[in-house]
Specification:
Helices cover about 35% and strands about 30% of the residues. With about 200 residues, it is of the alpha+beta class.
Length: about 200
């Protein structure tokens, strides 16, 4: 019965128009070079205190978080786009663009849709403590159609068991920051700095 329900959802997803993509100025690609660039900016602002603030492209920041997860080397050919605005982060890619390991994690989803199917992960950012920033997977859409929560919860819990840096739900990544750190979403970037140089921490 579950397989039939899943098949029905995914067939409907194929027929649902895609939501409009963000302008190019708000988008970036995942890359190994992005890990290096973002790490350098984070170290300069929060560790060495060589500069008061920095703006890190969404693709570079997402690459940095993947490195924190221990996800390994990002293939040069990976065509995953990261879109950032002041409210959320979206990670967008076609099924065929995902590494085989990631497609395996999607289980039945990957076997029931066309390889050109667009999957988008919707991520929110929250300051949850004096030294903690939370990145939370709010949901996933398949060709613009919301992936069912009851299936998403089970799938992400399985992923959480494989990546200790995530919570048991597989949907939360907590990043430690200095007590005076400011981390905020902006058009196409994540802005980092300190209270004395940027202002009060955002209440998100």
């Amino acid at each position: 019965m579950m397989a039939l329900r899943l098949a029905g959802v995914l067939v409907a997803a194929q027929l649902t128009p895609l939501a409009a993509q963000a302008p190019d100025s708000l988008r970036g690609l995942l890359s190994n070079e992005g890990v290096i660039r973002a790490t350098a900016e984070v170290d300069s602002v929060f560790v060495a205190r060589l500069k008061p603030s920095a703006s890190i492209g969404g693709g570079d920041w997402a690459s940095y978080l993947l490195a924190r997860l221990g996800a390994g080397i990002i293939p040069d050919s990976l065509g995953i786009l990261v879109e950032v605005d002041t409210a959320r982060i979206q990670v967008r890619g076609r099924l065929q663009d995902l590494p085989q390991e990631t497609r395996d994690l999607l289980g039945p989803v990957a076997s029931m849709v066309d390889s050109s199917t667009v999957i988008v992960a919707h991520v929110l950012m929250q300051r949850t403590g004096p030294q903690v920033v939370r990145f939370w997977l709010r949901g996933i859409t398949v060709n613009g159609f919301a992936f069912p929560e009851f299936l998403l919860g089970s799938m992400m819990a399985s992923i959480g068991r494989q990546y200790p840096a995530l919570t048991s739900s597989g949907r939360d990544l907590y990043v430690q920051v200095p007590p005076d750190a400011v981390v905020a979403l902006g058009p196409g970037v994540i802005r980092i700095g300190t209270v004395t140089t940027v202002g009060s921490p955002p209440d998100q």
